[in-house]
Design a protein that fits this description.
Shape: globular
Strand order of the largest sheet: 1-6-5-4-7-9-8
Order of helices and strands: HEHHEEEEEHHEHHEHE
Largest sheet: 7 strands, antiparallel
Distance between the termini: 49 Å
CATH architecture: 3-Layer(aba) Sandwich
Oligomer: single chain
CATH superfamily: NADH Oxidase
Strand content: 15-25%
Structural class: alpha+beta
Number of domains: 1
Radius of gyration: 18 Å
Length: 244
């Protein structure tokens, strides 16, 4: 019987099949964050602690957490967006060889870049933005007025994307993880995506928001649309969010 792709993946990423890593070979590690056009204007985000979310019981937040696909027309404030970004990918400390963030990651590799489809955020024009985690700032990635429709179409027309205040799109930078963990790093990328999205769910509950995780999308179309090759950089996970 032909081995399924899933079984082969799990078998071939066992430790006994792994080659020596580039880290062990003494090769330089990849950057902690992808480069950006430093001449482009950046959008400052308020410090996350400027938003008073009040006191919340964690058990209650976990109990009431659910996937929510319907959102009110109310926009997020820029303070709320800053808070959600910090909770899901916030950088607490930059070390020479790693970043320490608000979510766990294998070996503190933190191999994700966060893109945002902004539909309704006070003070931020609609468009596709990239979150520069080490700076806690935004940079415009695509100002096409139809970008929301195109991203929705590439996600099999899931209309909660267009109706969201913001849709988070997480990009995996593969070599940032495999430099240390070789092929097993692909497992860790998917585990890390779950950590990030769960933090977004819980943080949104604290500000009267809702989240719907999205794993159903056309990989090729989504990567082409955002300008990624689909191999070294690819869309790994998405989540729509908004006020409820």
């Amino acid at each position: 019987m032909t081995e399924s792709a899933g079984r082969e993946f799990m078998r071939k990423t066992r430790h006994e099949y792994l080659e020596r890593s580039d880290q062990d070979k003494g090769l330089p590690q990849p950057p902690l964050e992808l480069a950006w056009d430093e001449s482009a204007p950046l959008i400052d985000l308020p410090a996350p602690d400027t938003l008073d979310v009040g006191a919340h019981d964690l058990t209650t937040i976990i109990a009431q957490r659910q996937s929510r696909r319907r959102y009110s027309p109310q926009p997020f404030s820029i303070e709320e967006l800053s808070y959600l970004l910090w909770c899901s990918q916030g950088v607490r400390e930059v070390l020479p060889h790693a970043t320490l963030r608000t979510v766990p990651s294998a070996g503190a590799r933190h191999a994700f870049e966060t893109y945002l489809l902004v539909n309704r955020v006070e003070g931020v024009a609609s468009g596709l933005y990239r979150f520069l985690a080490t700076r806690h700032k935004l940079i415009l990635a695509n100002g096409d007025p139809d970008i929301g429709d195109k991203i929705t179409a590439a996600a099999w027309d899931q209309d909660q994307i267009k109706r969201s205040a913001v849709t988070f799109i997480w990009i995996a930078d593969v070599y940032r993880m495999t430099w240390r963990y070789v092929e097993r790093g692909y497992r860790y990328l998917h585990l890390d995506a779950g950590h990030v999205c769960q933090n977004l769910y819980l943080a949104a509950e604290a500000i009267n928001g809702g989240v719907c995780a999205i794993a159903a999308f056309d990989d090729q179309k989504m990567n082409d649309l955002l300008g990624f090759d689909g191999e070294s950089l690819f869309v790994i996970y998405m989540a729509s969010t908004g006020k409820v």
